[in-house]
Fold this sequence. Notes:
This protein is α+β, with helices and mostly antiparallel strands and 124 residues long. Helix content is 40%, strand content 21%. The longest helix is centred in the N-terminal third of the chain and has 17 residues, at 2-18. The radius of gyration is 17 Å and the shape is globular.
Amino acid sequence: xxxxxxxxxxxxxxxxxxxxxxxxxxxxxxxxxxxxxxxxxxxxxxxxxxxxxxxxxxxxxxxxxxxxxxxxxxxxxxxxxxxxxxxxxxxxxxxxxxxxxxxxxxxxxxxxxxxxxxxxxxxx
Length: 124
């Protein structure tokens, strides 16, 4: 159900980007734009959290706010699988960067799970 709702909202955002956004031009004061920010959050399948964060972002995108670079952050629990020896080439859609976690590199020595706050950065 959550994945279906996220997909539906993503289609609506993409429809906005392809129609209204083309005529309005670049109006957002942030990078990534508010619509891309929302898309990145909805891609992770937590629609209520994504909706709340997107609303806060859209409300802060006004002439009284300075704007700037503001990547979305999400709280995740990552489960790592053991290496099987065979490498499969994968397309990387997003990079997840730990947010304010200096001990991350010390704990990545191959734990079973990593949890914390991550910044989402879109891969090109």
